[in-house]
Amino acid sequence: MDKKCYVIGVYPPPYGGATVKCKLFCEMLRKGGENVKQIDIYEMSRDKKRIPFVLNKCIKAFRSKSEIVYCLDSKRLWMIMSLQSIFKQSFNRTTVLVIGGVLHETVLEYRRLGKNLKLVKGIWVETEGMKQKLVDMGYDNIEVFPNPKSEIGCCEPRVSNEKDPLRLLFFSQISKEKGVKDIIKLVHILDSSKDIEYSLDFYGQIVGEFKKEFEEFVSRSPNVKYCGVFDSTKSSVYKKLNEYDILLFPTHWKGEGVPGILVEAKMAGLAVIASPMNFNAEIIREDNKEGFLLEKDYAVEMAEIIKKCAENRELLKSIKVESYKSRKRYSINEYEKMLEKI
Q1: Which CATH number does the domain housing residue 111 bear?
Q2: Cis check: omega of the bond before 14, within 30 degrees of 0
Q3: Number of domains in the chain
Q4: Alpha helices (runs of H) in 220-259, residue ranges in sequence order
Q5: What is the pLDDT of residues 56-79, one digit of tens each?
Q6: Fewer CB atoms near the end CB (10 Å): N or C, the chain?
Q7: Is residue 150 part of a domain?
């Protein structure tokens, strides 16, 4: 019988971070010659009648002699691994590809998950900081797999003319947790000062309860445009990002690991202004060189940085170049030996 690799993940549209990570990982395994079988846990959320069908697929994977890879958030991981614990012999051929940056907190809340994770072949976390937290908790099967991306199609930094308006971009879920409130305040500051020419485009799914407030903001802001949800299966995300100068990422979301958009910004030669949430300082290692890290008053600080970049295009160019150079840390080619373990 042909040996398979089962990748248990989420594959729902629109194409969010977890979906993109699952899709890319499956592509990497197939490129290496693996017979990959995807199990979509999100099917159970879309249609409750599919629950027995999906769980039966998981049981088939656990009973097989094939490799198993999880690409799930912590709570879904806890649920499916509880089922897997009936087939404990399958743990020694299981690798957990961690989504987000709070697994070390989740294992304290879900003790059974913590015990099961100590039995698996490998836990691949996104940052060195996450690895250290789990090592301190007694785990010895941790490796760092920092949400790497393919360099295929990456773009050298776009040169920005001093007379051109700065092109600003937000490219994430449009919600309070992702810092859109801070960007609304930023736009008010920029429009009040009237000394910076700029445009700001938003891409992303709008969270329901925030929809009315966001749409009102866009309608009254002449420099702001909502561009919908970008479908990375139809167009190159690197090419689109490369059209801009600065990515705004003032996130407040506690679950951030290595946000895919920060890696994609590096591949696209884009400058980034990001909050210091979770492990962002590990991604933008040198503040004012690879990008800019915020401290407290995100809106005011973003306005100050944008003004500085508008007045000093050489500084902006230097940040873009260093951001692009740092992409090598996140190139999938650097992690081929890890993939060989699967």
Answers
A1: 3.40.50.2000
A2: yes
A3: 2
A4: 237-241
A5: 999 999 999 999 999 988 888 999
A6: N
A7: no
